[in-house]
Input
Amino acid sequence: MKLKDCLLFDKFITTSLVTIIYWLGLLVNVSLSVIFAAGFLSNEGMVIRILGGLFVLVFSAIIWRVICEGIILVFRIYDRLTEIRGHLATKK
Output
């Protein structure tokens, strides 16, 4: 990707940023789920906390992935439409 393309908004950097944000968010998700499951080292209801932590981990990871994919999808559609426009312009 050229700097000129980024400065003139011909190419977007959002897809790269969303990928980085996705992995950081997933790391936070795992960390919070482990903290929830650990229950600050309390023995009461340990099995329920572990199962709840696993459920929260899986459910929130799926939701986070869908949100990030939706954002990336919008920008990739734009990129493809730009490519199609370029191909049509060269055929004229």
Q: What stands out?
A: The chain has a mean pLDDT of 85.
